[in-house]
Amino acid sequence: xxxxxxxxxxxxxxxxxxxxxxxxxxxxxxxxxxxxxxxxxxxxxxxxxxxxxxxxxxxxxxxxxxxxxxxxxxxxxxxxxxxxxxxxxxxxxxxxxxxxxxxxxxxxxxxxxxxxxxxxxxxxxxxxxxxxxxxxxxxxxxxxxxxxxxxxxxxxxxxxxxxxxxxxxxxxxxxxxxxxxxxxxxxxxxxxxxxxxxxxxxxxxxxxxxxxxxxxxxxxxxxxxxxxxxxxxxxxxxxxxxxxxxxxxxxx
Length: 252
Prior knowledge:
This protein is of the alpha/beta class. The chain has helices at residues 20-27, 41-62, 88-93, 105-117, 129-132, 152-161, 178-190, 207-216, and strands at 76-80, 97-102, 123-126, 137-143, 163-174, 219-221, 225-230, 234-238, 244-251.
């Protein structure tokens, strides 16, 4: 499930990616975003895993001291599909100058209020990424978003345009497998682990498909890592890509 999405119906003339129905779905959940026991509980549970992968990627890419408290000092970061700020706030604490973009104005309102209450200076904006003219960033993050967009090729082109030469793109998304259909869509929605209507399994993208789409956007994809669950260990990074996977990419 995405940290709400930069998502709406495709407009081929402008490469729009936002689906209004997706934006409306996540807007309806905006006020519950920071409730770790509410409808967004699954995001709060997976977020530490995503952030661990992100920190490893930052350290490997820039060769910084892995013990540094603020490895992103002096760097700019953009979180696309930022929801209410679950990734933007940690990025700020890592030292980055952070911008968050989301399809939902309601999410942006909640994100801005939460950041202000937390004493964090984060720029939040709502709308289609391509129309915001934000420039390029050292780091672009996009977690659980691409499965919600209307035009994946256009969306990845927008991400590529937002990335500086030598910059780093970090993403995660569900894989399109029989296991993800059973567990992430049918079972998860049935038991209320994610809100009903959050996912359309047909919009999930396999690593091979995503690698090809990234290449079309001028980006090279690193080896993906799985995000999976097992009894006694819970959610963790692994070599099992059957449910969800995270990866880095860079301008090729």
